[in-house]
Amino acid sequence: MLKAAIFALIASTIVAHAEDCPRKDTLGTARILTVDPKTYPRVGTQSFPDTLPLEDREVVLTFDDGPHAPTTAKILTALSRECVRATFFLIGNSATANAALVKRMAAEGHTIGHHTLAHADLKKISNAAAVEQIDRGISADEMALNGKATTVPTTPFFRFPYFESTPALLDLLQSRRIAVFGADFWASDWNPMTPQQQLELITGRLKAAGRGIILFHDTKAQTAAMLPDFLRYLRENRYRVVHIVPPAAGSSARPSSQ
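That's the Chitooligosaccharide deacetylase sequence above. Prediction below.
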């Protein structure tokens, strides 16, 4: 019953259609999905049992490891041209070095999540060092975004580097009401390939999955080059982009559409 109610709510409330975009024939953002970490503390079927309540042909676009000036700027431009919003999981050191890009992400309506200070494999270091990586990463991202260093994230979304977590760290993040994002599938863009090869790989995986959270890296030149064609593929094949956001401050809503 709960799942049916959630999907009914999703179907009934659709926002930010392509026709709201000032440019015709764009993909647009189909709807905004509010994800409460209390209800969905861990999502992404490559790592966890649960994922976001997406309908068939709905995708959430996520990017890791930035910002990186030469490529992130191109990715933001491609998303802007199609009126699409995505989620960026930032490396704290990169956010510090590229604060203007962090502010651009926020100004263009994207969601900013967190990905540690320096992309350490948190499973290979002590728990104390791992917590420091998480907290210093959040603090650096928040300083770049809002000019205030704090370990309480504006957006309580986090992704582990390499998807390598520990039970203690998962419990800690859940206790702090920070949602952990895995992915449902990815572009494998850490491997060298041409933009066309990457496009064929990710569209093939999308056809097989039908929906889901997709992982890209905005630090990769091949991804930046491929993205306009991928967004065009989504539009031409009637896929819909869902933008994820946290609950408003002080609210306790379950995952829902706005």
